[in-house]
Structures are given as structure tokens and as C-alpha cells.
Amino acid sequence: MAGAEGHVEADNAEAIITRIEHKTRKIESLLKQYKPVEALKTALEGSPPMTRDERCKSANWIVVHRAIMAIKDVDGMLSSLDPEYYDILMKYLYRGLSTGDRPTCDQCLRIHEKLTVRAGLGCILRCLADTVNTERSTGSCAKKVGSF
Amino acid sequence: MAAIAAHKFAQCITCHAWSPDHSMVAFCPNNNEVHIYWLVQEKWEKMHVLQKHDQIVSGIDWSARSNRIVTASHDRNSYVWNLEGSEWVPTLVILRLNRAALCVQWSPKENKFAVGSGAKTVCICYYEQENNWWVSKLIRKRHDSSVTSVAWHPNNILLATTSTDGKCRVFSTFIKGVDAKDSTKGKSADLKFGELVVQLDLSLSWAFGVKWSLSGNTLAYVGHNSMIHFADDIGPSPLAQNVTFRDLPLRDVLFISERMVVGVGFDCIPMVFAADRRGIWSFVRFLGEKKTASSGSSYGSQFSEAFGKLYGQSKHGVNNDARGNIHDNCITCIVPLKENGTWTRRFSTSGLDGKIITWDLENQQDLSEYL
Q1: With contacts defined as CB-CB under 8 Å, which chain B residues touch A120?
Q2: How far is it, in rounded angstroms, from Cα B358 to Cα B6?
Q3: Chain B (247-266) residues lying within 8 Å, Cβ to Cβ, of chain A
Q4: How does it assemble (chain B) (predicted)?
Q5: Do the Cβ atoms of B354 and B371 come closer than 8 Å?
Q6: Cα–chain-centroid distance for residue B260?
């Protein structure tokens, strides 16, 4: 039973990885055309990948990270980004902050400040409270997710 | 103003309940006692102190028709208090818990009450005439964590619970000999005691404060992730809606009408949610002015205020009074003010600031379309 489940998960992971690779190519071309906001939207689409697979999560994070770092005009980006993406973006900002990498943290904090003004404290709370799609709690939550 | 009366009764209030005619209010001032105050010539005076619990009283409910008070406490016990002459006489209810009792609620017919607990269980208590004794029957399974709130369906059978495992569940509490078969209408008639009707899995974090609408068609509860959840058609295939909002999480909710809900919580000010003609729920507005807490200076003042509270500085007390009819701290409890057993547009809130505030939505023009 558990083995079959694991197999399905692995198949699913392959599909997700393929999708992320496709996304990466699209984002690279958007960045070449100086459309960083479009790139970020593309990166956030289909996120979180809804999987426990760490490989998928990391792959998706690399794509989103690439798009986040290309953002120069934060206000412009946020006003053209659909509010439904705010929660997802916030989650990735915290992931960025957790890397401890100086340029990444600088960029994430810059966006975090502006995003909080727009999306409110509720957005931060939803990010902190989400124990399924954030990195921190994978260990304790693996069991819980299994029953979904 | 939507707030029509406010009074600071204590440093902190864990829960409160009104007497059937609203002339008296019972609350727990964050200790093992329940204080009953009544309004004499525009002034609140202490009338009774109910002392029997050993630890903090976490839940109080005052039954409208039988005029009985039920209390639940962290000491793992409940008491049912009957007014005999001028004295409140307690009857111990042994809940058979090994953790704190967290919330309590009389059923609509007042022949049962439900207690949620930290022991991952719900106790359904009913009176046994032959033994002169309140019996506690436990729903043991299903909950993976503490039960934070309980709410009775108007049919006196279904009970909704929220838990810190993030789920909201609906159980049947049919008890032979207490609930007559013919009184249970429709689907809920065939359900056995403790049977799970539905489990709602909408929240990713702790769930608090569940309530039914007046008709029992809609259920609302809140999560600790700044979301409020609504569910219609409770049964095998419920229709669920999640509403996210931009402010701090809620702790408790209350239906004002079928299409309007008031939520209270960490933002210290009640929020109104309403359903439009299509039944889509959304945030409408706050009841009253929201404190401005975005600028740097006010963060500073919040800090000094917190320190002031810590060291009991009196000048901050004066400050608070100037703010008038609003809460200064997290609101943990919202109670409807019923008249002759029917619901009204009035309700009261209490919280960690020790105030009880009464609200009236009658003269709120923009909200009248949802009433």
C-alpha cells in the first residue's frame, strides 16, 4: 500500500520536474526581453508544487529565486501582480530569507516591506501558519499530508 | 457607533455569559472564580462570587429558560449552578478528563451540554433523574488535538467542534432516553452517539470559534492563519468557502443573520463578513475605527504601553479610558444577546483587556441589507 503510494508520488515528481524545466526556459526568455514581472508571474504560477518531494520544491525555488532577483521596480511589480499571488510570493520571500545569502536577503527584505504594506499582516500569518507547503516543517508534517 | 456600552470589569476576562434578561453578567476574571455583576442605577455591582473551581475557568454558559449556569475549568471539572433562594448552589459534573476543559455550551433544549477539552475529547453531559446526577459521555476518537470550541446545531443533536489539529468536525450527540426519536428530524435521526457526520479540512493551522447560523444551514469557523471558513449543506458533500483577510487572526465568530457574521480576535476590533446574493462571503468592514499601528512611533507606544501594563502604571489606564468603547487587547469571546430566546442584532464581546462591550447593529445603515 505504502509502496504503491510512493510510486505514484515519484511519477508525479517527474512530471512536476518536467513542468518546472519548461517554466525555466520560458522565464529565461522573458528575462531576456526585460519583462521581469511577467517572469515572476510565470514562476509563481503552479506554486506551490503541492508535493512533499524536496527535489521539486528546490527546483521550483530556484526558478522563483531567479525571477525575484531580476525585480528592480518593486512597487511596479506589486501593482501589476494579481493579489492572489501575494501569499505564495510571501512564502518564497521567507524561503529566500532562510538561505542567509546576503544579496538574496537584501532583495527579499526590500520586497517583504512593500508586500506587507499591501497584503497586511494576515499574509505573513498565513505564511507562518502553513505547515504543509513551507520547508521548515516537512518532517513533522509528512505524516499529516499523507492522509490527504 | 456600533458599540453601545462598555465597562472594564477586571484586568483580564477569559469568558462571559449573560443572564436570560441581560440584567446580570457572569465572567471569569482570569482566575478560579466566576463573578456575577448586576446593573444598579447605571452602575455595575458585584452580586455573587462562585467559588468552587481550583483553576482558571475557561467556559461559562447561562441557560436562557432554566436559568442555570454551567462552568468548565482547567481543573478538569464542570459545575452546574442552580439558583436556590439567593444562593447559587453548585453540582459537580465529573467529566472524566485527564486534561483541562476548554469550552462549554448548553444545547438549545438545555437538557445537555458539551465540553471541549485538551484531552482530545468532547464530553456530552446530560441529567439522570433517578440518580440526581449529571452524566458525562465522551466522544473519544477523531480529535487529534485539543478541542477549542463547540457549537450546537438548533436541532439539539448535531454538535460542531474545532480543534488545534486544524479540523472542524460535526458529530451526532443522540442519547437514548434524553433525545426523543421523533424530535430528530430528517437525516440526523438515524445517527448514533459520537458518529462523525463530516470533517472539514479547510485550515492549515489551529482552528477556533465555530458557530452555526440561526437556521443551522451554515457553519463558520476561523483559523489561526487569518482565514475564516464557511460551510453550507453539512452532510456527505458540504459546500465550503475560505475567505482570507489582511489582518490578524480571529478567535471567535457569531452569526448575526443568515448572511452576516461578526468575527473577533487579535485585531481588538470586530470584523463584519457578509454573503452577497450569490452566497459568496467576503470581508465588509470593521465595527468602528481601527487603531493605526503602521507607523514607527506607534510601535514604540505599543511597547511602552505593554511595559506600563506589566508594571501596573496607572497613567496608561487613563489613556485607555480615553479611547472609549473599544478593546485594547485580543478579543476572545463573543456572545449573542438573545431576547426571549430569539436572536437580536445585539451581541457582547470580552477579551484580555478585561472589558465587556455591548454592540448593536440596528442603526448601521450600510449593513442593514445583510440583516
Answers
A1: 226, 245-247
A2: 6
A3: 247-249
A4: Component of the Arp2/3 complex composed of ARP2, ARP3, ARPC1/p41-ARC, ARPC2/p34-ARC, ARPC3/p21-ARC, ARPC4/p20-ARC and ARPC5/p16-ARC.
A5: no
A6: 17
Q: In Å, what is the CA distance from A37 to each residue of A30, A112, A115, B107?
A: 9, 16, 14, 55
B223 touches chain A (CB under 8 A): yes
Question: 3-state DSSP call for residue A17?
Answer: helix
Query: Quick check: A129 contacting B, CB < 8 Å?
Result: yes
Size of interface A-B (CB pairs under 8 A): 44
B281 Cβ contact partners less than 8 Å away, ≥ 6 residues apart: B228, B230, B241, B243, B261, B273, B274, B275
The residue extents of the domains of chain A are 2-146
Looking at the complex, report in whole angstroms how far the Cα of residue B294 sits from the nearest Cα belonging to chain A: 9
A38: closest CA of chain B, how far (Å): 25
Digit-coded pLDDT (tens) for B67-86: 999 999 999 999 999 999 88
- What is the per-residue pLDDT across A49-105, written as a single tens digit (0 to 9) for each? 566 777 888 888 888 898 888 888 888 888 888 888 898 899 899 989 988 889 999
Identify the CATH number of the domain defined by range B6-227+240-253.
2.130.10.10
CATH assignment of A2-146, among 1.25.40.190, 1.10.10.10, 2.30.30.40, 3.90.180.10: 1.25.40.190
Domain boundaries, chain B: 6-227+240-253
Give the chain A residue whose CA is nearest to the CA of B201: A148
Residue A143 contacts B where some CB pair is shorter than 8 Å: no
Identity at B4, one-letter amino acid code: I
Q: Give B148's Cβ-side CA count (13 Å radius).
A: 26
- Statement: residue B326 has pLDDT above 70: yes
Contact B223 A129 (CB under 8 A): yes
ipTM: 0.75
Contacts of B319 by beta carbon, 8 Å cutoff, 6+ apart = B305
Distance from CA of A118 to the nearest CA of B (A): 9
Strand order in the sheet with B112-117: B101-106, B112-117, B122-128, B133-139
Contact, A53 vs A16, CB < 8 A? yes
Beta bridge partners of B161: B150, B169
Closest CA–CA distance from residue A50 to any residue of chain B (Å):
14
- Residue B74 to residue B117: CA distance in whole angstroms: 9
